Structures are given as structure tokens and as C-alpha cells.
Amino acid sequence: MESCGEEDEEAPEPDWWLPEPRGRFGSVSCKPAILGVRAVHGNMMRSGSDLRRVIVHLDLDCFYAQVETICNPELRGKPLGVQQKNLLITCNYEARKLGVKKTTTVKEAKEKCPELLLVKGEDLTKYREMSYKVTALLEEFTPLVERLALDENFMDVTEMVEKRLEEWGKDAFSQMPVSGHVYGNRTVSLHDLAHVKLAIGSQIAAEMRESVRSRLGLTGCAGIASNKLLAKMVSGTFRPNQQTILLPESRRDLIAHLDNIKKLPGIGSKTAQRLAALGLTTICSLQMCPAAVLEKELGVSAARTLQKVCRGEDDVPVTPSGPPQSLSDEDSFKKCSSEVEVEKKVGELIASLLVRLYKDGRKPHTIKLTLRKCITNRWLNREGRQCPIPPHVVQKIGTGDSSVQNQLVALAMKLFHKMINVKVLFHITLLSVCFSNLKDAPASAKQSIGFYLTRPSSSNCNKLVHVSSEPIY
Ligand code: TTP
Ligand code: MG
């Protein structure tokens, strides 16, 4: 349902209204010319500090499957699944129409849809590269872009919205079609500043989605709301390739409609169990629960946070992510119980990370090895050890000196021996290597012509494999 409400009906006052701030558009006196009828009467109160912001959440559709299709256009239009080991981690919407669900086993998916095409998705390189391209493109609209996952970004578009309001003035009110859907099919009041801002936000979100589609070939869903929590929650309401705005008066509805208490951010299995012991198993029961009861069970701080979440309140700013703080890669498997095998797997992880470090251009100063032990068929929690990388090894990263691979593997194996006694039988099911404490390479290294000549282009997903004659790190 595309919506462009123009009625001037009084919307019910939500119970979380905050006092009116005297901000740029929160104040009646600062911009009388563009404030509608109710504003003139000093009644345009909805842009309280909680409603001042306009946040867009963008979640790409069946992300890995879309990237695979871009790399191999022959897959377009066919039901496609991406697998990691025997798990289907995503599938395209053609497959979903045929009953395939993501995060099922490959076997179940094939039973549902025998014609399902499958591609392996263990190597994340091309997904990561595309992910960073999307973020970079969104940063062309606003510097306030925060990466939430490989295929999810938050954008704070408040300033863009306010700028458009200023530029368009009164006209903005009469030509303010909402782009996409309005959650709950509510009417958008052109005399309500919060509504108008969200409507402008919806246009910006549509422009962002169109840019991602036309320049990178990816579609996605957007949610537009006054905070990150609500923008994320509303973004998947209509999918794929659609967008939805959430008006302030629909906040409680949106949250109340979550079918599972665990879908609220911050509620994991343990908290859900504790709440269930209090008889709180639905969102509605949680919303109605007196603060004192929650505080007794969870402590004051956690209880207050939860209550805010239940009301759809979230004042956490969009924090630009910048380059990643660390680079890591991991592999999981049924069983690895020999040192030689561990060394081989660690070597593979480090080789792929060195390629990423090389493209990144920064040098890591810390290496961490994480593993997961399995004892009598029970997986234990992950366990990790880290250590500084000696300066003479750091120096070699990104220079083309191939000895660095073995030196890093040797370091990782030292960490391994701190966690595993190889003299007795061991069984591990996961290995992960993480490089952190990333610092810019000294200027002298960057000035070397070799540094530029040997850096591979990351512009094409078909060109990710390195030519072996070139130094790759
Ligand atoms: P999602 O955003 O959960 O899923 P999606 O983008 O594939 O599909 P949707 O249209 O529903 O948003 O995850 C993003 C990518 O993360 C997904 O393409 C594959 C990967 N992924 C995993 O590696 N493991 C998982 O368990 C899930 C759910 C996803
Ligand atoms: Mg997605």
C-alpha cells in the first residue's frame, strides 16, 4: 500500500510525549512560515526531543544471494540458496515463494524445492567487499552512517530533512507524498511536524535505495522512524524491495505485534526465562508490568532499559562506523583433533586475512586465536588468547614478503598451545583468527611505488582471486 494521507485529522496523543524542546524545528517561533495550521496555534508539539530525529535503517534483501547473482547473472530469476556447510544461510525470494526458508538445512530446503540451485557461501570476501561499497555509497548522502551488519546500515538523516524543510518552506507541506508504506496504514498529517519529517525521510530513503539499486544492482528494505530501534523494527514490514515509515502513534502497536518476547533487542534466552518465571511471556504483558516488579528481578538498570525498549524509546545516536576495528575470519567443522590439521586451518585463515589486510592498507599489532572445544559431544564456550605481533613481523605485512605468513602462523600456534595440551586427545569444532589494533602504515611504506602497484583492485567481484605471480601481502 503506497500512502499519501492529506487529512487534517487530530492524531491521538501518544503517552510518551516529551516536553517541547526549543530546537530548530521544535520551536514554533523559529520557523513560523513553514509550520502549518496547528503550529500557528502553538500546538505542533510532536517533535519533542524523542521525535526530533529521522533515522533510516536499510537492510538488503537476501544479501548473499543477490551478490552471487551479480557475480553470476545466469542465476537471475531462478530459486537460489547460499549454503555454509549443510546449512542454508539465505535464499532468494524466488526460492522463498516456493516455500524455502533461510536457516534451514540444505536437505530440508532441497526437499521443499528440488530445483533449488545452491552456491557455497563460506568465503565472505565478496559479500564483505559489496557491503563496504554499500556503506560508502550511503556515506555520499550523509556522513552519519553506522554499519550494523554486512547488509544493514543506519543513517541519521535529520539534518538532510531539516535542510529540505528549510529550502522548500511552505511548499514542502503541500507536496509531501510519503514514499512507500505507512505502518498500520495510518494517515499522515501534513500539519504534524513529526509526520512531515518522516515523510521527507521516506523520500531520502527511497533515493538511497534507488542509488544502491542503480549503481550496485542491489535491492533492500528501509524503515524510517525517529530512532534506531524503531527504524530497524519497522524496516522489514513490507519486503522485498520496499520501505515503511513508522508514525509516532504506531510505536506501541509495532512493538506489541512482535510475536516473541525474544525479538526485543537485549532479550536473550536467559532473560526470557527469568521473565517467563514472572509470567511475562508476551510483549503486552511486559508493557503492562509495573516497574518495581521488573526492577526486583533484573536490577534497576536492566529493567529501565527494557521498559524503554517496550515503549519504543531509544536515544542512542547513529555512530559512524569508519573502517573496521579488527579483521577476523573463522572456520567451524565437526572435528579437528590433530595439530597438523589445526596448523593447516590456521594457515588458511591467516592467508585470507593477509589479503584483506593488504587491501585495507593498515597494519595489525595484535593477533588473537579463538577456538571451541568439544568434550563428550558437548560444545564448550569459545575460548581465546591474544598477543602482540612483534614489530619486525608487523613491518612485513603489506610489503610482499611471503615469510610473514609462516611467522604469523607460528604466533597463532603458540596461542593454540596455551589453550590445548596436544599430548592428550583433543577435539575442537571452531578456529578463528582476529587481527586487531590496526594502525595506518607509516607514510614511508605508503610512499613506496610498490605499495600502490601491488594493491589489487576490489572493484569487481569477479576479480577477487589474486594472480599468484603478484605479491599479495
Ligand atoms: P539477513 O539480513 O538475516 O538475511 P538476508 O539479507 O539474506 O535476507 P532478508 O531479505 O530476509 O534480509 O542476513 C544477511 C546475510 O547474512 C545473509 O544474506 C546471509 C548471512 N547470514 C549468515 O551468514 N548466517 C545466518 O544465520 C543468517 C541468518 C544470515
Ligand atoms: Mg538482509
What features would you describe in this structure?
It is built from 19 helices and 14 strands. It has 473 residues and is an alpha+beta fold. It folds into three domains: 10-61 and 122-322, Reverse transcriptase/Diguanylate cyclase domain (Alpha-Beta Plaits), CATH 3.30.70; 63-121, 3-Layer(aba) Sandwich (MutS, DNA mismatch repair protein, domain I), CATH 3.40.1170.60; 326-454, Dna Ligase, domain 1. The strands form three sheets. It has a six-stranded mixed β-sheet with strand order 6-7-1-9-10-8. It has a four-stranded mixed β-sheet with strand order 4-3-2-5. A four-stranded antiparallel β-sheet has the order 11-14-12-13. The site of thymidine-5'-triphosphate has 13 residues, from strand 1, helix 2 and strand 3.
Which terms would index this structure?
four-stranded mixed β-sheet, six-stranded mixed β-sheet, 473 residues, binds thymidine-5'-triphosphate, alpha+beta, Dna Ligase, domain 1, Alpha-Beta Plaits, 3 domains, binds magnesium ion, 14 strands, disordered C terminus, MutS, DNA mismatch repair protein, domain I, disordered N terminus, globular
